[in-house]
Design a protein that fits this description.
The chain is 35% helix and 17% strand. By secondary structure, the protein is of the alpha/beta class. The site of 2-keto-D-gluconic acid has 10 residues, from loops.
């Protein structure tokens, strides 16, 4: 029997591609020199899309796939997948929740500590011999014991909050609804949360409902010298307002893993020494990526075996 054909939108590790290739014919769109010609050749046979948080699947693409049965995302954020189109056409969408939560929360703290304690500079200070020539490096900024504000207290936001508790921090948050079972203080909007806290961390999910959620009003409400971290989506932030807050010193230090136009970034970000930048790498550990790949493959296998999907987005 012919193997079902899957359209693979972005690069995946061999430890996922190899087992998938045993059961499916993989059509690697990202390797096609002429994606248009590639789609024209294969579209009519594609039964599933395997995609990533940052790539997604558009209605225009899916319209071209008459035999499409499933969209499986290697990532938790499905904001780049046209779910309305999928729902209207009865196409299930799966993602990889939970398995990446703790790594993304680790990255929020890694960026926070790297920015506040100026780890990139410290590393250069030693490597470049500045230590021996000039002595100790300038003093940095304390992290523990501060007041952290979390925008979006979902799974990842709560994992960040648990870490904050370990750092002796007070935690407040904003989100669509209060979570009274959690011991943190609720504010209805980022603009209401911002002036209360020392550190603002964006953990909101992406998509139309959170577009520009941390807006100019929120950035202007921060106290001068605040810290900012984003491990969710660049789209959740008004980037022009973020850059202005950095220029004016309202944000003294920041750690950013995501950007509006990634992998391209506004070149202004790279001009500020008080920022630590990462290439959308928060879930990028071997352990978590293996777990994400396994879960994504479990979903695809379940679909073709007509079993319940382990993590269908509902
Ligand atoms: C990416 C993510 O999917 O889970 C998400 O929503 O954005 C990430 O984990 C990851 O970079 C894999 O491409």
């Amino acid at each position: 029997m012919d193997k079902p054909e899957l359209l693979v939108m972005g690069v995946l590790p061999d430890w996922d591609l190899e087992p998938m290739a045993e059961r499916y014919t993989l059509r690697l769109l990202y390797e096609a020199p002429d994606p248009e010609a590639f789609l024209a050749e294969h579209a009519s046979d594609i039964r599933g899309i395997v995609t990533k948080g940052e790539i997604g699947a558009s209605a225009a693409l899916m319209e071209r796939l008459p035999r499409l049965g499933i969209v499986a995302c290697y990532g938790v954020g499905i904001d780049a997948i046209d779910r309305g189109w999928c729902a209207a056409h009865g196409i299930p969408v799966t993602n990889t929740p939970d398995v990446l939560t703790e790594d993304v929360a680790d990255m929020a703290f890694a960026l926070l500590l790297a920015a506040a304690r100026e780890i990139p500079r410290a590393d250069r200070w030693v490597r470049e011999g500045t230590w021996a020539r000039e002595g100790s490096m300038p003093l940095t900024t304390r992290v523990w014991g501060k007041h952290m504000g979390i925008v979006g207290l979902g799974r990842i936001g709560q994992a960040v909050a648990r870490r904050a508790e370990g750092f002796g921090m007070r935690v407040s948050y904003s989100g669509r609804t209060p979570k009274p079972h959690l011991p943190y203080t609720y504010h209805p909007t980022p603009a209401a949360l911002a002036p209360q806290v020392d550190i603002l961390v964006c953990c909101a999910m992406g998509g139309p409902t959170t577009q520009g959620l941390i807006d100019r009003a929120a950035f202007e409400a921060l106290r001068p010298g605040s810290l900012f971290v984003n491990v969710s989506r660049g789209s959740c932030v008004d980037e022009a307002a973020l850059l202005d807050a950095i220029r004016t010193g309202r944000i003294a230090l920041a750690g950013l893993d995501v950007f509006r136009d990634e992998p391209g970034i506004d070149p202004a970000f790279a001009t500020f020494p008080n920022l630590v930048l990462a290439p959308h790498a928060a879930s990028g550990t071997v352990e978590t990526r293996k777990a994400m790949g396994q879960l994504m493959r479990d979903n695809v296998d379940a679909f073709f075996a007509r079993r319940p999907l382990p993590t269908e987005v509902t």
